[in-house]
Amino acid sequence: MSDAASHHIVIVNDDPFQQSVLVNRLQRLGQFHCSAVSGIQSLFSTRHSLPLVVIIDVDLGHFGNGYEHCQQLAELPALCGVVIYSACSDDIAHSVHNLFQSSGIHNVCHLSKSLPLHHLLERINAFTTRQQGSQEVDASIPYPDFHQHVTLAFYQPQYSTDDRVTSFEVLARFKGPHDQILMPNQVIPQLIANGEITAFTYRFIGQTLEEVNRHTRSQPRLSFNIDYRSLEDANFASRVIQIIKQQGYPCGRITLEVTETGFSRDNITYQNLIGFRLAGISISIDDFDLSQATVNEFLEFPFNEVKFDKSMLKRANEENKVHQLILRFCQTCQSLGTRVVFEGIEQEQDKLTAISLGANRLQGYWYQPPIPVNQAIKFFNVE
Q: Are 143 and 202 in contact (CB under 8 A)?
């Protein structure tokens, strides 16, 4: 280590071997003071006298996530750059990059760990030559008691293009005081108005997974709707993930469909969406319509599924321009590994159109309406 080091390079990584390799390689250059920590909070307990470059992994194992304290990181007076050095997928890394920038860290870049180490050294040199100045969640999740209605889970199967059941969207139905079945639009707006939609989501996911586990050991793939307002709750991803794990359900078999566009682009929204993806949960844009708002969200956030509304399917059947536009977009999705779902399949022509456009999954009344668990059981073991 040189006594005349120009910068302090800190590697934030939970793997001791990777820490050692990076520190040793950087030390050989002789111009940096190098150290490694396992968690990002360690950075805040030390006073940094040299300009600081942080090399940070996204997933730090039991030490938390590299993006959780981005605001504190941005406030370090010595910070002059951040390199996101991770093996996570490009869309997750892109969202982490946006999160750091929105926190006020302007010198930030992403590098895959699969690249040769000299790429990392080049990025560090670029920063140093243009120098400029987990939340713990309680293990017991209380499900709030909504006294007015009994909540029921109805399951609508989703099919592959060769007519195999692949998954289920779980839809809430409510039993009123006289045992009448109420649709979501009769209850959900009131939950939103009362500020109860996030608490309801916790309970609904928990009770559904418990119900499925009682009826089958196959643990089918399930999709749940989440309201965009819930993404503005700092604990939302942590609590949902914990509820899923408490039920012994694999996160990789869960998809969360964001039901509205126009949600906040603040740090908490980014952190929740990134947290879900890192846990293995898929994130879907529901009612995708190729509007500027939905396309912008597809580009900015780590969605790995788009779900076209039936109105778009109808337009694709009737308007060649719309058909060609959706076709090209679906081709792009396939090249990115993004799943494409078409709902609203109500006749065979809808199915044929959706398949011709590039659908991966199909859903609608032509296949099956939403059904209660006692009728859905026969589908649960079909994969």
A: yes
Q: How far is CA 173 from the centre of its chain?
A: 26
Measure the CA angle with vertex 14, ends 11 and 15; round to 5°. 95
- 225-172-363-286 Cα dihedral, nearest 10 degrees: -20
Tell whether the model's pLDDT for residue 4 goes beyond 70: no
Q: What is the pLDDT of residues 92-119, one digit of tens each?
A: 888 888 888 888 887 888 888 887 777 7
- Give the number of other CB atoms < 10 A from CB of residue 109: 16
- Using DSSP bridges, classify how beta strands 7-12 and 254-258 pair: parallel, antiparallel or unpaired: unpaired
Question: Cβ distance 86 to 57 under 8 Å?
Answer: yes
What's 152's DSSP letter? E
Q: Which residues contact 145 (CB under 8 A, 6 or more apart)?
A: none
Query: Which residues lie below 8 Å from residue 26, measured CB to CB, with a gap of 6+?
Result: 9, 32, 34, 121, 124
* Whether the model pTM is above 0.70: yes
What is d(CA 127, CA 122) in angstroms, rounded to the nearest whole number? Answer: 9
Q: State the average pLDDT over residues 156-180.
A: 90
Over residues 172-219, the pLDDT tens digits come to 998 877 777 888 888 888 888 888 899 999 999 999 999 999 999 889
Q: Which residue has the tokens 């009826």?
A: 215
Q: Where are the alpha helices (DSSP H) in 7-88?
A: 16-29, 70-74
Q: How many whole angstroms separate alpha carbon 141 and alpha carbon 205?
A: 12
Complete DSSP assignment for 197-251: HHHHHHHHHHHHHHHHHHH-SS---EEEEE-GGGGGSTTHHHHHHHHHHHTT--G
Residue 89 three-state SS: coil
Provide the pLDDT confidence category of residue 134 given band limits of 50, 70 and 90: very low
Q: Considering only the C-alpha atoms of the chain, give the largest distance between any 2 of them, rounded to a whole number of Å.
A: 80
Q: Residue 234 to residues 122, 136, 237, 284, 349: CA-CA distances in angstroms?
A: 35, 11, 8, 20, 44
In eight-state DSSP terms, residue 42 is G
Three-class SS state of 133 = coil
